Amino acid sequence: MTDDAVPELRASDADRERVSEILRDALAEGRLDMEEFEERLEATYKARTYGELTPITRDLPAPGVAPPPVSMVKEPVDSGSWAGRVVGGEGSSTWAVAVMSGFQRKGRWTVPKRFNSFCFWGGGDIDLREANFADREVVINCIAIMGGVNVTVPPGVEVVVRGIGIMGAFDSREDGVPGDPGAPRVIVTGFAFWGGVDVERKLTREERRRIKEERRQEKLERRGSARELPESSHGDVHDAHHRILDGRHRDAHRERNEERRERQEERRRERREERDRRRFGDY
């Protein structure tokens, strides 16, 4: 590959996140005003190639070093370990308000050490499944007055619920579930009056698809192994056939149960959204 072709390489989410961190530092240091920051941040998340990313930080220095261009060398893909998601620094968003309306924080974002949210006759969705974390322990503070907040965490994260509800409630089903080694600790606190704060643990849609594909491959391998069974006695083949059928029935039953659970979760979410629209949509 020639040097001229490098700027045309497709940029990854990690590349865009590195550029956005440089922009946030520049905003905090006064190198950019809010209007410039918003323009460059929008251009960053719209960028598709290295050639589009490089000009965005060309006139900005990285902290403590000479101004670097965006790296043109593809770095190893992050293994998905928790160490790579606890990034330090400041959060990309520290608060959210919904008054007779709604808000969302989801996708790729950095959770600060403390995130404050307020809902009055409104609803909020705080999704941490694809987020990075500014610290190993973060606090999600939720104030819900005649409204609701839904907090979604990925598997492996430890959750502690400390909220107070008056004619309202904080969902504590995930409270106390042990986390993975090195995983962040999420403390959900706040106050709910005629409202509620739900906490649920879910895989991302991509992870669910990946798991389903792995199981499909396992089934194909088992079927291939069954076709390669040696022609021994008729009784042995008959027993092996029954074992394979039993395994297929168990797999099919497990898949049906999982699909049923996914449909139930989707229906619950749709009912909750419909309830919020009926409650707050006319205001």
TrEMBL record:
<feature type="domain" description="DUF1707">
    <location>
        <begin position="9"/>
        <end position="61"/>
    </location>
</feature>
<dbReference type="Pfam" id="PF08044">
    <property type="entry name" value="DUF1707"/>
</dbReference>
<protein>
    <recommendedName>
        <fullName>DUF1707 domain-containing protein</fullName>
    </recommendedName>
</protein>
<feature type="region of interest" description="Disordered">
    <location>
        <begin position="213"/>
        <end position="283"/>
    </location>
</feature>
<dbReference type="InterPro" id="IPR012551">
    <property type="entry name" value="DUF1707_SHOCT-like"/>
</dbReference>
